[in-house]
Amino acid sequence: MSSPPAEASVAAEPLLWARQLAFEIDGRRLWRELDLSLQPGERLGITGPSGSGKTLLLRTLAGLEPLQHGELEFRGRALADWSMPKYRAGVAYLAQRPSLREGSVEATLRAPFGFGVRRGVAYPVERAQSLLSTLGRDADFLRQRAERLSGGEAQIVALLRALLVEPQILLLDEPTASLDAATVEAVEQLVTLWLAADGKRSYIWTSHDASQLARSTDRRLSLASAA
């Protein structure tokens, strides 16, 4: 296997490292020879026009799409060396349009704590309530049916679920696209606090809002140049 890019080895070992990625769909290549490294504490923005494959890139990094070409490592281990439950416990993907299980919002938030990979980890009730309050929702929200939520409310639940399980990397795919301005500000604040709570965490954020990326990321990677 090739060594990580030279610029990544200058600092700490990257949390996530991808080299020579390529993705083709319906005979059209979206990007090729794509290199990416994510250092602990880094905030990376992904840019590119509609159709450039931003969502597919995040899904590939999350292990939700097959690795068509190239190499991918998390914490120094190749993707193939991880069990998917353990990998996805460390690398959490937030879809722009989350698909939520049937049942209450609270059941949706509790569900990951019933998986074997989190055996012995209790659902953090007080933290869930605190996060919910920051996002302008009260306890009644927990009793709502998750499958009947609006697009924006589903994004809130998906974010809460991800923050509660505390991954090392968040892959944020237009996470505030359906939210009002006040909730957008609250989401950005919560993600910032999540990052600051552990210096070994990082995130990748896609957004069509250039001002949001300027606030929320340290550097940007354009998929337009990788086509």
Question: What does this entry look like structurally?
Answer:
The chain is built from eight helices and nine strands. The protein is α/β, with parallel strands linked by helices and 227 residues long. The chain has one domain (6-226): P-loop containing nucleotide triphosphate hydrolases (Rossmann fold), CATH 3.40.50.300. It has a five-stranded parallel β-sheet, with helices on both faces. A four-stranded antiparallel β-sheet has the order 2-1-4-5, with helices on one face. A hairpin with a 2-residue loop joins strand 4 (69-74) and strand 5. The chain is globular, with a radius of gyration of 17 Å. The two termini are 24 Å apart. The model is unreliable at 1-10 (pLDDT under 50).
Distance linking N and C termini: 24 Å
What's the β-strand tally?
A: 9
Strand content: 15-25%
Q: For this structure, what is the CATH class?
A: Alpha Beta
Q: Please, what is the CATH homologous superfamily?
A: P-loop containing nucleotide triphosphate hydrolases
CATH topology: Rossmann fold
State the strand order across the main sheet: 6-7-8-3-9
Furnish the topology, listing elements before pairings:
Blueprint: H1 6-10, E1 16-25, E2 28-38, E3 43-47, H2 54-61, E4 69-74, E5 77-78, H3 84-90, E6 91-94, H4 105-110, H5 125-134, H6 151-165, E7 169-173, H7 181-196, E8 202-206, H8 210-216, E9 219-222
Parallel strand pairs: 3-8, 3-9, 6-7, 7-8
Antiparallel strand pairs: 1-2, 1-4, 4-5
